[in-house]
Amino acid sequence: MADLLTHVLVPYVVLTVVGWRVDWLTKRWVAIGMAGAAIPDLMKVKILISSSVVESTFGVPFSYTPISTLGGVLVIAGAITVFFDERRLRVYALLVGGGLSALILDGLRIFADGHSGFWLYPFTWWRPPTPNLYVTADVWVAGVAVSLSVGIFLLNRRMQR
Amino acid sequence: MIYDPRMHYSRLRPIYKLLVVFLLMAVLFSSGVHYASQVSKHQPYPSDEALKENPDRYVGETVLVFGTVEEIDSQNDRAHLRVNTDVGAFDLVIEGFSVARDIEPGGTVQIYGTLQERGLVSATAASVVNPSPSSTLYKYGVSLIGALLVVVMIFRNWQLDLATLSLRAGE
For the whole model, what pTM was predicted? Predict the structure, then answer.
């Protein structure tokens, strides 16, 4: 996947710009969208507890991959939304939107056979073709995301005055 | 926005919130089991485990493998790849390795090609995942910054009320 920083900066840029037009889209809601974009990265929990450990503990096959699929984003976003007492639909929509942006971004990476992973699970096992734009280790990707974000941040401050 | 006790908020008692989260995590866990049991049926290539345990069966077939580069022999356009699987690691010789650009030993790569014979893959395409061992450090470092950014953004704009297990607008 793209690095987590790039993942969260995409909704930052998009939502901040949209927020110039939409009154309710303030910083606190941009933050929710950014948190949503971090959901697929929760798959990194496998570094702490590998899937083989889970498999031998419970005696079932197991993979963490669904966390970084559309189904996983919908479920995890739901679990996060539970902790908000108001505007739950808005929270959920921003979390899912953020998560979806991260999944789509990952789908643009270089895959050796030209198709990305099963990120539309469980709705389909279709692996969308990818335009093969980058690999996560490409520093320019984070570079572009950070530069764009700094620009938007400065522009946003100007607009607040 | 200030919390106004006179306003009606649709609120779940904390215990019910935890119950809902537990149920959703159970759904997530089940999807992890379902995915693991079904995924190999939908992959057009043999899994790494299958390649390790039954290499002869797949000779002549298209494979997609992911591994760490152990050494590169540029003169003969070959490299040694170490593939880690859930049932142990195995080695492959990759022919036509020049499809993978800008990678050094210790880097990780995805190779797409044909299994010519047991232990030998002729590559037609590659995706360099980590050009060098230090790429992993870069990825973790940058991701850590991303994680901190989200945490700061959330806690600067939302307040956690432990009594009701809720996040409220506020600083």
Answer: 0.90
